[in-house]
Amino acid sequence: MAGGLYGDVLGVLLALIICVTRPEHVSSAQRELGKGVPGNASATSPPGSDNAIRAGPAGDGPRPTPRTGPYFDLVMSKNVTALLGKTAYLNCRVKNLGNKTLNMQVSWVRHRDIHLLTVGRYTYTSDQRFRAIHLPHSEDWTLQIKYPQHRDSGIYECQISTTPHMSHFIHLNVVEPTTEIIGGPDLYIDRGSTINLTCVVLYSPEPPAYIFWNHNDAIISYDSPRGGVSVVTEKGETTTSFLLIQQARPSDSGTYQCNPSNAQSKSVMVHVLNEANSIFPLSGEYPAAMQRGGQAFAPTSPAHCFVLAVSLLISLS
């Protein structure tokens, strides 16, 4: 009988030792595995290496030498964004062409149809919207496009008639004035707060003469009995109009439309919410287990193991 009790006690003590020490073994194994996790910089990078590009000591590598042939000045030969219907200029600056101009020519080619547009100062297209511009002794070879249309967007090649020929590509993007309302197409406003609608007019050759705001197809009157309605407009390359409506109420819900004088209109749907109809949940409503990312199901601690062992000993005594 004593031997049986002794065996039970020994078994309980052995279970206690395993229960208490096992988390430490698991943690040690996790630490060992963590050494190979990609987030560990010492494991992902070989000794003495990193992802930074390091400059060599001063004087390393060949020193720059003056160019002997023609080349493109990329800083002065950039892509172009042109307004619809407003003359566009595509510039190509060629360095070191020098006195070789008689033997070398700078040409413009449209890639959409591989059409030769200009050679030197001469235009080789029946489309009179295109014209070559080059001043004597200038390094700039410019392609002028009058009344550009959307179909004129694309890649244009500035070409030097070397052997083989040298090319630099310039992308033309033809845009037209557009209107945007920030935050659309639906905006949710709490009752009693301020409605702030922001209308932006982009790519306009000149600021719009005026901007009207409509609410449910009716022009908003800033002197209406409702009160608390105002508009602030900032004109420039990008024109911005702010519509402010204080103390929002359910009757302020509906469709709001921004109407610039020189661009398409844009609409947004405004929903004024009562407190009881709020669609945004409160952070405190989430269960504790979800807030902790599942840590509510953590393994049993050593203290729990000790209590369990004592309970077993008492039951055996």
Descriptive terms for the model:
elongated; 317 residues; single chain; five-stranded mixed beta sheet; alpha+beta
Explained architecture:
With 317 residues, the protein is an alpha+beta fold. 18% of the residues lie in helices and 33% in strands. The chain has 4 helices and 19 strands. It has helices spanning 2-34, 41-44, 288-291, 302-316, and strands at 71-72, 80-83, 88-95, 106-110, 115-119, 122-123, 130-133, 140-145, 154-160, 166-175, 178-181, 186-190, 195-202, 211-215, 218-219, 229-234, 239-245, 254-260, 266-273. The chain has a 6-stranded mixed beta sheet, with no helix packed on it. A 5-stranded mixed beta sheet has the order 12-19-18-14-15, with no helix packed on it. Strands 1-3-8-7 form a 4-stranded antiparallel beta sheet, with no helix packed on it. Helix 1 (2-34) runs antiparallel to helix 4. The longest helix is centred in the first third of the chain and has 33 residues, at 2-34. Residues 23-65 and 279-301 have low confidence and may be disordered.
Outline:
The protein contains 4 helices and 19 strands. With 317 residues, it is α+β, with helices and mostly antiparallel strands.
Q: Mind sketching the topology for me?
A:
Blueprint: H1 2-34, H2 41-44, E1 71-72, E2 80-83, E3 88-95, E4 106-110, E5 115-119, E6 122-123, E7 130-133, E8 140-145, E9 154-160, E10 166-175, E11 178-181, E12 186-190, E13 195-202, E14 211-215, E15 218-219, E16 229-234, E17 239-245, E18 254-260, E19 266-273, H3 288-291, H4 302-316
Parallel strand pairs: 2-10, 12-19
Antiparallel strand pairs: 1-3, 3-8, 4-5, 4-9, 5-6, 7-8, 9-10, 11-13, 13-17, 14-15, 14-18, 16-17, 18-19
Helix pairs in contact: 1-4
